[in-house]
Amino acid sequence: MTDYEAVIGLETHIQLNTITKIFCSCKADSWEQEPNTNICPVCTGMPGVLPVLNEVAVKKGVLLAHAMHSEIRNVSYFDRKNYFYPDLPKGYQISQYDMAFGDGGYLDLPMPQGYTRRISITKLHLEEDAGKTKNVGNRRMIDFNRCGVPLVEMVTGPDLRSADEAAQYLIRLRQLLRWLGVSEADMEKGHLRCDANVSIRPVGSDQLFTKTEIKNVNSIDNVRSAIEHEVERQIREVSSGNRIHAWTLDWDDDKKELKKMRSKETEADYRYFREPDLLPLHLSDEWLQETFTDFPELPLNRKKRFIEDYQLPDYDADLLTTERNLSDYFETAVKAYGGDPKKVSNYLMNEILRMLNEGGKTAEQLRLTPIFLAEILKMVDNGKINTSTGKNLLSKVEETGLAPTVIVENEGLGLVSDDSAIRAVVEKVIANSSKEVDAYRAGKETLIGWFTGQVMREMRGKADPKLAQEILKELLKR
Amino acid sequence: MELCDHSGYELSFFLREKKISAQEIVESCLARVANVDGRPGSVDSGEMTLDDTQKVHSFISITAEMARDQAKKIDQKLANGENVGSLAGIPFTTKDIFCVKDTYSTAASRIIANFKAPYTATPVARMLEQDAIMIGKVNLDEFTFGSSNESSAFQPSTRNPWDTTRVPGGSSGGSAASVSAAEATLSLGTDTAGSIRQPAAFCGVVGVKPTYGRVSRYGLIAFASSLDCPGPLARNVTDAAMMLQAIAGADRHDSTAANVAVPDYVGFLDQGVKGLRIGLSPDYFQIVYMDAVSGEMIRHPVSDEIKATVYHAAEVLKEMGAEIIEDVPLPNMRYGIPAFFVISRVEAASNLHRFDGVKYGYRTPQTLSDLNEMYRKTRNEGFGLQPKLRILMGMYVSAAQYSEQYYNRALKVRAMIRHDFDQVFDQKGKYRLNAILTPTTPSTAFPMGDVYGDTVLMQYADQFTVPANHAGIPGISLPGGIAADGLPLGIQLLGSDFSEADLFRIGRAFEEGTQTEAWRSLKPQVLRAGV
Amino acid sequence: MKDEITIEVFNHLVSLAALELDETQAQYLRHELNQQLKAIHELEAVPLEQGLKINAHGVAFTPQTSPQLRTDDWIPFEDTTDILAQLPQSEDRYVVVPDIPHEKLD
Between A and B, how many CB-CB pairs are < 8 A? Predict the structure, then answer.
């Protein structure tokens, strides 16, 4: 039996999170708004209107292209893609055809199994989104709110070899988009949309065979399932001697199955030509330089550096770099703390992440700043407070916004390291526990823990435990 | 002489001197419209009457109430001693290809006959800001597709005020006729291949096609976006200069409106022509085209009368101090029409995609089985023949398999036309011209019905005007004389990018140099006593 | 001379253009198209210069004369009801059109 491998390319549409649309001053985000509220003559294609390009859309597109190692063209062009559809008010979409602002590119995709796959980018351009339509009975209802929301269309080469790789690509892309702050990248809300081109071939072949196109998949898990289903189907078909047809397939999320849409139209001719209403897009080297001034260290690089510089385990480094704010938080805390980075990591991965999830916050929104976290860690290390006080402090700082030292002071949470105060309590405990004292002195030295517990209870946890134990041992010896 | 027959600068002066009121100006215009215009164009026009054939029919909609309200406000401002705009009280018409909020903005097409624009085009808004008063919206060829006005879906279409059996030219025919018959002082037109200059020549008025990007296109219902230019029509150069001053300049709604400062056109007007170099080109004294039947190239010289008019103008300017340079070669001008046939159609077909019955305008009343049927019936019933022709041609020449042969080739030819102009305007080159002087049109206004239908012949009426659109350079058509048949003759001045100030200067000098000539005192037929 | 745009080509164009024509119109339009194409063919005889730089608007826009890109500031349109008032058919602020045909498969 022949072994087959999957050959997958992904076409993604990324909504940029600008304030306004790409060619008019309407608000771009219409989530949960009434239909046809964020519209104007321009985005509804009224006669006589003209597009005016949003600079921030260009900037965000350029940041993404740079992160994808794409060459940025100093001069690029917009083109009209002509077709009739009721969600496309002008009857053409303004897009970039043969001279887009981004040229080529790739993403090195690390797989959990340990290998890295280089995914090439064959297309990267700016365009406008279309409206939304829905069927009600035999009528089609159209909402133009989404018309003109800026999109980057980014298409990979047929370089992915499994559903897992496709899913991993989307996970890394989503991470990157949020990291760069160019898109909310929420697939459920359509910020990130993905079509998958899927074909199979015998292992070892470098030919490309007829592919199908899977559309309307709205989560990463569904992309994975849809591709898995389709690869299996294609292998079944080919194994039983059937041909693969260039179908367009629709993912049915409820039934978890693929359905055939209309068979792919023969050579749709969009009659592209240069958009005469826009001038060529000139991006000077100075403009690019300025745009890249604050270009961030990218997540995979940062992860690598965390492992090298802070000796973090792969797991920690990966988790701490899922999100840019969190990784910034970590690094600031580590530097302020000066102690073992793994300790900081532990706090982050447990307490802080829980705090973020529960509060629906991102790391930079916390009142518990990385500096405060470092202070708490230092107080624990110095024996100023014990570990459990330290952990309780986290939420107290977050609630009040006060510095941890202030709270410790105000609430008297500091450990008592005054020899005479502890000595007095130890004497009291020994006097009240003659049975245990006898047992200890008879050689049952493990009781030291019990004694320490008693002292701590008497002092409501505020005793320096090390000191308490030393004094206990000294007095019990007598 | 009625109030409406005065020039714009006179009206503006009288108004500021409080000799007249803005309301009097408006009433004078409306009275003229009532006298000469006949019924406005309509999509349900019924039978033509004899009376119809003797009227001008400039208008599609007369915005009398808006005009009166505006006049009242201007009078009030003046009474209060407040400042008024540079065009205060000057009445104008707007070619109905511009959107004006709360007016029907029809493009002279059935497909948007009922479209009320929710916004105002930038050049119109700028005129209103300067307190010019809009009298109404005037007729044109459907979507500006023509050179005679006859293709308007709004009939009766405009007739030439100098002879109502003749066309006014087009597509800004209503604009030229309304100014010529003094129904208004100024008109806002558009020029894609000569649509301002050709009707201006046919109707004996001044027409300006500014540099591409000089005036914002926002609100202009597009024909060919890379060629369309809004511009003024007026009865004299000074009025045209005042108007361009008001409408020119960058616009946040148009990314092709150039970021170039607007000079003081009026201030430069009287600087004379001493030292300016004006060229004459043999390539502008013949039309060259391929005979449709034999496929042979036909060279057809312009009439002696037209040639004499241009040479006379050159003579006048020479006497006033200009230097005339003859035999300036512009060999690629003759390809202007075939290149235009391709480029304008590709853009037009795309621009007309949006008229689909979904968002505005006409939707077929027939019962429909599906969306595609709605598209087809709506577009078939809504578009006239000329838009359909342009759509089909645009579709053909931009198809993926043909676009190299047709579209890309036409773009290259366009670049060659531009290159010809660059050479002769190059101030370090051989010719160092400030302007080129040409006839505006190869003929005077043709009789209605003579050319309409033959779309190739009709297009060749634009052979002298279309090169400026390809090159993006400015051009102005001036009344140059009256032909033996009693019809106006136009002369054209072309200049380098953003040289409108020079063209106005030369035009103004020509007016001065010819002000005592007999033809200057002739009036259009519809304004002569006893008619 | 043979017509470049045959009836078949013409009908294809008509369908691409979302039009439908009666016979008289079709005949006239096809005739005019073929006439215009003959004029257009003159372009083929033009000797093109090498290295010709095409620019989209005739006028060469320089970085100085090109308007700035738009800043990302929200300016809501004053009255969307003016836009909706133009709709041939609407319902609850939606634009309404007849259904989109789907091809029956299988």
Answer: 103
Q: How many domains does chain B have?
A: 1
Nearest residue to A318 (alpha-carbon basis) of A306, A330, A334: A306
Which residues of chain C does A273 touch, with a Cβ-Cβ cutoff of 8 Å? Answer: none
B171 is catalytic: yes
Cβ distance of C46 and B375 shorter than 8 Å = no
> Helix or strand or coil: residue B243?
helix
pTM: 0.92
| Cβ pair A141, A194 in contact under 8 A | no
Per-residue pLDDT of chain B (531 residues; tens, 9 = 90+): 899 999 999 999 999 999 999 999 999 999 999 999 999 999 999 999 999 999 999 999 999 999 999 999 999 999 999 999 999 999 999 999 999 999 999 999 999 999 999 999 999 999 999 999 999 999 999 999 999 999 999 999 999 999 999 999 989 999 999 999 999 999 999 999 999 999 999 999 999 999 999 999 999 999 999 999 999 999 999 999 999 999 999 999 999 999 999 999 999 999 999 999 999 999 999 988 777 677 777 888 999 999 999 999 999 999 999 999 999 999 999 999 999 999 999 999 999 999 999 999 999 999 888 999 999 999 999 999 999 999 999 999 998 888 888 999 999 999 999 999 999 999 999 999 999 999 999 999 999 998 887 777 778 889 999 999 999 999 999 999 999 999 999 999 999 999 999 999 999 999 999 999 999 999 999 999 654
Q: Does ipTM come in above 0.90?
A: yes
Q: Is residue B309 part of a domain?
A: no
Answer yes or no: do B226 and C35 touch at CB < 8 A.
no
Residue B204 forms part of a structural domain:
yes
Active site residue B95: yes
Q: Does B412 sit within 8 Å of C54, measured CB to CB?
A: yes
> What is the token pair recorded at C30?
């096809």
Contact B212 C14 (CB under 8 A): no
Enclosing H/E stretch for A18: none
Helix (H, G, I), strand (E, B) or coil at A432: coil
B262 and chain C: CB distance < 8 Å anywhere? no
Instruction: Considering only the beta carbons, identify the residue of C57, C95, C103 that sits closest to A144.
Output: C95
For A126, phi and psi rounded to 5 degrees?
-95, 145
Domains of chain A as residue ranges with CATH: 4-289 (no CATH), 299-411 (no CATH), 419-477 (1.10.10.410)
CATH number, position B102: 3.90.1300.10
Q: Is C52 on the interface with A (CB under 8 A)?
A: no
pLDDT of residue B292: 64
Question: How long a stretch of residues is chain C?
Answer: 106
Minimum-distance CB partner of B356 among A91, A269, A277: A91
Q: From the CA of B194, how many Å to the nearest CA of chain C?
A: 15
Nearest residue to A93 via CA among A106, A76, A80: A80
Contact predicate B67/B74, CB 8 Å: no
Contacts of C67 in chain A (CB under 8 A): 279
Let me know if residue B295 belongs to a domain: no
Active-site position among B12, B171, B187, B281: B171
Residue type for B216, please? S
Domain extents for chain C? 1-46
B298 is a domain residue: no
C44 touches A at CB < 8 Å: no
Beta strands in B315-398 (DSSP E): 323-325
Q: Are A68 and A111 in contact (CB under 8 A)?
A: no
List of chains touching A (3+ CB pairs within 8 A): B, C
Report which of A417, A389, A418 is spatially closest to residue A404, judged by C-alpha positions.
A389
**Predicted pLDDT of residue C51:** 80
- Are A9 and A213 within 8 A, CB to CB? no
Whether cis (ω within 30° of 0) applies to the bond prior to A41 is: no
Alpha-carbon gap, residue A331 to A328, rounded angstroms: 5
Catalytic residue among B55, B95, B137, B209: B95
